[in-house]
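Quick log. Single chain, no ligands specified.
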Amino acid sequence: MAFISRRRTREFLLQSLYGRIFLGSTFRRDIFLSEYFQAGDIWIIDIPFADAVEYGILEKQAIIWAIIEQLAPKFQIETMAIINLLPLYISLYELLFLTFDSIPAWVSINEAIELTKKFSDDSGRLFVNWVLSSCVEKQKINPKFLQEIEPSKFILFHDIPAYVSNIPSL
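-> predicted structure:
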């Protein structure tokens, strides 16, 4: 029986975002998607979820960066391994901005940790866990903390296609 895998969808998202960083405007998600999967395996990706999260991250990247800076003030985020930042982007978007689906915080955090285990190392896993746990705690203490954060001038994703800025609010 065929089923959609959110875990595999998040793995796809991480790799798609990674490709987008390094290829910039030459990145073509449709080509990446067709090359990522063997023929017939694409059915395991939750495309509406992947679209909402990926395009949402691109739209909200400046605020997500600022959130990471606020939650990890002792770290130089600009020098961190991108592979440790991408699970944070995915999970923070799910936790704070995703509106069409309700994902429990613990699920999003665990999935980010699993992504980091698969693509990074123990120190990355610990950092991701610490930042996301801090986010959940901060949200409990001050539910309006997100409104107090100013977007960062630093962004990971450059040369974003025009259609991203024209997507409806997700």
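The radius of gyration is 15 Å.
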